Amino acid sequence: MKKLSVLFAAVMMVVSVGMAKAQKIATLDVVGVLNAMPEKKKADTDLKTFADTKQAEIKKKADAGQAKLKQYSEEAPKKTAEENKAREGELQKVQEEIQQMQEKAQKDFLAKQDLAYEPIEKKLNDAVSKVAKANGYDYIMDANSTSLVYKAGPDATAAVKKELGIN
User: Where is this region: Disordered (predicted)?
Assistant: First the structure.
């Protein structure tokens, strides 16, 4: 009975090794391909411009609030307690507005980023699928993945870049 178990285990090892060798696996530098795509470069530029614009609006509001705080701090001894309390409430309202602007800017940026990158990701995935089918790859793994332990198969990066028409 023990010999049968050992024989079965040996047969399973041979079969699994044979199946693994039958599969064609390639790697792909996804980050490198994406960074070489003109569409991605344009999207990155547009997103940076959008983020810089929003940041400038927030900074303008924060600077105005800071100026108001300085003014109110200097005038505080000359004002009544009631006036100072009202001014404190006004400053708190400005601070809340700035925080809301930051949250909205972040939400808007993420939405704009998703919208900008969606067609780029689709184009890349279509090119990867086309290259995989043309070259008979069963799997194409991301060469940048930390979970990739062994990489000796062919690299599909050049073929995908060629399919996308980039260098």
Answer: 62-89
CATH number for the domain formed by residue range(s) 2-164: 3.30.910.20
Residues ≥6 apart with Cβ < 8 Å to 12: none
> What token pair was written down for 146?
């930390």
Q: Report residue 141 as tokens.
A: 């793994």
Q: Point out which residues pair with 140 in neighbouring strands.
A: 26
Identity of residue 24: K
| CA-CA-CA-CA dihedral for 109, 111, 115, 121, to nearest 10 | 90
Banded model confidence at residue 11, pLDDT cuts 50, 70, 90: very low
Q: What is the pTM of this model?
A: 0.71
Give the residue ranges of DSSP H helices in the chain: 2-22, 30-36, 38-75, 81-135, 157-164
* Residue pair 131/156 in contact by the 8 Å Cβ criterion: yes
What is the longest distance spanned by two Cα atoms in the chain?
100
Would you list the domain boundaries of the chain?
Answer: 2-164
Condensed to tens digits (0 to 9), the pLDDT of residues 79-100 reads: 898 998 999 999 999 999 999 9
Amino acid at 155: D
